[in-house]
Design brief:
Blueprint lengths: L1 H14 L7 H34 L21 H6 L3 H35 L4 H13 L2 H12 L4 H8 L14 H13 L1 H12 L3 H9 L4 H12 L1 H16 L3 H7 L10 H11 L2 H26 L4
Helix pairs in contact: 4-8, 4-9, 4-12, 5-9, 6-13, 8-13, 9-12, 10-11, 12-15, 14-15
Length: 312
């Protein structure tokens, strides 16, 4: 009897009509429907170009002669190996390292100093100073370049100011020894706004009670800043360092607008090298140079995560 009842119940369950879609399934379907346009756009304009450029980096695709028959051959890592045998690319890589090593610490120090001044020192017109310091970030690079070109001319304002103290300034943008420092100075002035805002947010999130306790224990302002404020700013410093590394390793606008990579390739960066190769029709070489830059960004970011999270 029990087995018969069991069979009837099981057959009854089997004969029931399928249940309607649950509320969770409907919400999931609606969510995917809303996400589908973005996924399609991202796949079309994000994923597909990345995969295409990656495939180009392992081929000999060029566009040097439009009359020649179009053919593409797989060459493996030949484009990558040829890069490191190209003196121009090696010079561009060295210039990029120079720009990053000199520019990032200088930008971070200036941004942190201004953030401290805005948070503790400057009490009047804080909003005005914040807007003034952030203005270079949102200013057109073309407008910035025109102004700084006048400043860097041999008889420009910078050399005129140096002449007051008896220093004969160089022809900044036409001197191979001074062109890169000139671009670094302009880049630091143009990019310190965002790190300053991030540092300022980090400083305002530190409880005032911690600094007051340090002062009660007899710590000086510098000791309090070094032993209390800086350690608590480690996560913020990590964010700033990674953002600056990504931006500075890709530096392109400064040499493109100001120097065209000169003089004597002294301001050619990896990004500018890839741009030139693409203009020459060497698409495979340009793509390979771009992915070398991607690898450098990833390695530097991982290194910074290890450094700034070591004592977190």
């Amino acid at each position: 009897m029990a087995s018969l009842a069991t069979m009837r119940s099981s057959s009854g369950r089997a004969s029931r009509p399928p249940q309607a879609m649950s509320g969770h399934s409907r919400r999931t379907l609606v969510a995917w429907a809303f996400c589908a346009p973005f996924i399609a756009l991202f796949a079309t304009f994000g994923v597909w170009p990345v995969l295409s450029s990656l495939s180009m980096s392992v081929t000999d695709i060029t566009n040097r002669d439009v009359r020649a028959p179009f053919s593409v051959n797989f060459v493996g890592v030949e484009n990558y190996t040829s890069l490191f045998g190209d003196p121009t690319f090696l010079r561009a890589a060295l210039n990029t390292v120079y720009f990053v090593v000199a520019g990032i610490p200088l930008t971070m120090v200036i941004a942190l100093g201004l953030a401290v001044a805005l948070n503790y020192g400057i009490q009047r017109a804080k909003g005005l100073f914040r807007v003034a310091y952030f203005a270079p970030v949102v200013t057109s690079i073309v407008a910035v370049a025109v102004v700084w070109r006048y400043l860097y001319e041999e008889d420009g304002m910078i050399n005129s100011a140096l002449a007051v103290v008896g220093i004969h300034g160089p022809d900044w943008l036409n001197d191979p020894n001074w062109a890169m420092p000139a671009l670094i100075l302009m880049a630091v002035w143009r990019h310190f706004g965002i790190p300053m805002v991030i540092f300022l947010a980090g400083l305002q999130s530190i409880p005032e009670e911690l600094r007051e306790a340090a002062h009660i224990d007899g710590a000086t302002r510098w000791r309090t800043f070094r032993s209390v404020t800086l350690p608590l700013l480690r996560p913020v410093t990590l964010v700033v360092a990674v953002l600056l590394s990504i931006g500075y390793l890709q530096f392109f606008e400064e040499p493109f607008v100001m120097t065209s990579g000169g003089p004597l390739d002294s301001t050619t960066s990896i990004s500018y090298y890839a741009f030139e190769q693409f203009g020459f029709g060497n698409y495979g070489t340009a793509a390979a140079a771009s992915y070398v830059l991607v690898a450098a960004i990833a390695l530097l970011s991982l290194l910074q995560f290890r450094i700034f999270r070591a004592k977190a």
